[in-house]
Amino acid sequence: MRSIGYIALATFGWTGPLLAQVPDAEQGGGTIVVTGAGLPLPPGTPAYGTTLINADRLTNSASGRIESVLQDVAGFQQFRRSDSRSANPSAQGATLRALGGNASSRTLVLLDGVPMADPFFGYIPFSALVPDRLSLIRVTRGGGSGGFGAGAVAGTIELASATRDQLPQISGSAFYGSRDATEVSASQSPDLGNGYVTLSGRWDRGNGFQTTPRDQRVAATVPAAYDSWSVGVRAVAPLSADTEVQVRGLIFQDDRTLRFAGADSGSQGQDASIRLVSRGAWKVDALAYLQARNFSNIVISSSSFRKTLDQRNTPSTGIGGKIELRPPVGDAHVLRLGTDLRLARGDMYEDAYNANIAANPATSRRHAGGAQSTLGFFAEDDWTIGPVVLTGGVRADRWTITDGFYKAVSAAGIPTQTSRYPDRSDWEATARAGILLHLSDALALRGAGYTGYRLPTLNELYRPFVVFPITTQANAALTPEKLKGVEAGLDLTPVEGVLLGVTAFYNRLDDAIANATISATVRERQNVNAIVAKGVELTASAQSGSWSFLASYAYSHSRVRAPGAAFNGMTPAQSPRHAASATLGWSAASGPSLSATLRYVSKQYEDDLQSDILPDALTVDAVASVPLGHGVRLVARGENLFDETVVTRNAGGSMDLGAPRTLWLGIRFAQ
Fold first, then answer.
1. Are the C-beta atoms of residues 244 and 195 closer than 8 Å to each other?
2. Cβ contacts of 190 within 8 Å, gap of 6 or more
3. Bigger pLDDT: 303 or 580?
4. How are the residues of the chain apportioned to helix, strand and coil, as percentages rounded to the nearest 5?
5. What confidence tier does 1 reach under pLDDT thresholds 50, 70, 90?
6. Where in the chain are the domains?
7. Looking at domain 2-210+253-670, what is its CATH homologous superfamily?
8. Which helix (H) or strand (E) is 137 found in, with range?
9. What's phi and psi for 210, nearest 5 deg?
10. pLDDT digits (tens, 9 = 90+) for 231-252
11. DSSP class of 332
């Protein structure tokens, strides 16, 4: 916890001087406008098929959780169907386009330009990403990226913090829900000089629901209780009329209990970043960040219900930064030149126990870890020629995997395994290009091609794990995944307020990292030849008076290419063929509002051999609110209103279930 103090000191140490030295607009010779946003999007961005989720949608979901809102983009999925109340935190990897379930994120997730994936595991700390703190989410389902491009093999999810014009002076909410659940959040955003500061916090907890089907419960079975909190601070201050500095700090803790009494997991993090944005003739976006994360997890035997594994400590750090320059090259071009760096280091400490003996003695103590780095250089240009926008970019990344090791000793301290793995490094070149053709105000055509890559995480390389009865072995010889993809689509506005989109895509992920079945109880992380995903994505949105409609559908036909393997030609694990989401809303001006969301996901397979099926699921959510006056609203929320059974895990018939019907009632205020 000492790192919390260091990061807080660094954050407030920067914030204080910056706010104290704000220049006077009259002395500076120009009007100072502080937004807290990044640089404007290049005009070619829509060529890659982006989808936006606005602030109103972010703050009006039934669950109040960001991973649920992201399901508005059909094709988004985590490793499992569980949300951040009942999933193991280390399994919360994000992916798109049915490229295969993976606990490590195949999608690059950025918050104000900073990669959010855990440095050791690669999962996304969704419980710490509070929707109320954001202005929008931009989802790009195609691979490849400019800054921090390593990792964007299944697209990019960009989260942007709320800007000055979107922040009330004070806001908050308090909800009480089914199974004694509470959710409380608050924020304050005072102006300081010509800048502002936002301090926010959220705490949510609940006794949880039974993830175990009724006929599989035993005396040791307990509900999936959870208790999490996060505190964030963000300060924005001008340095001149067109330059501002943004400082952000985040501290979070998330504790959960899964399936059996004593099966407790915990994740925590302390993040800090500083960003300089200049909107002058030479536009600049420069940032640096630090992440300190940790994870712990206790595995309970499903036969003796005693501790079998204690993953007691997994400290990791992430350090990085980016500099992007946009030189003045004329109105027709937006040229981006830059470099970025990411460093990750982590260790795993765990103890194994003999669960078959009442004394539950320790049998082995293990220590594993390593380090990674990526240093990238990128150049991108968007060229506007009348109704045509051409966009393209190249990246070159130097990556390293170093200091890898695995050690095990007996309970008496006698070494039983000592492995040192050779250091590796290489260069990886990637590129992307697209075209956007505005045929009229109502119709735009687009097409894009791209490549990308992802390094195996330290977790995939060095840490085995157990989800009873399956043990998944690590593999220190894993090589990077490499993506090639193309897509084409159109955006149509037939009448004012209506937008329709369609995208056809073909993606091939070579050397895809998958959990390959070795035996009935053993899997191993392996590079398979390829995963090929092709399909169609449809989007629709409409606004007419008080009514709104938002819909998304993804058809994904995915196959594993692994000649000679038993799973060759099969559907990748955790990859549904169909996914759809639709939200219908009604809202009177400054009056009551009502929305309902329908979501469908087709069947998918738990494993690579397609032996364990997760059935399809159709859920309905709803949110209603009425004003009480003075900025206060009464809000009712309902998740899974028809109590659909959602199977999230199936290992030979041993199952876990997703959230049942959950009802919330609370208030929300903003002034």
1. yes
2. 169, 196, 197
3. 580
4. 10, 55, 35
5. very low
6. 2-210+253-670
7. TonB-dependent receptor, beta-barrel domain (2.40.170.20)
8. strand 134-140
9. -75, 110
10. 999 999 999 999 999 999 999 9
11. T
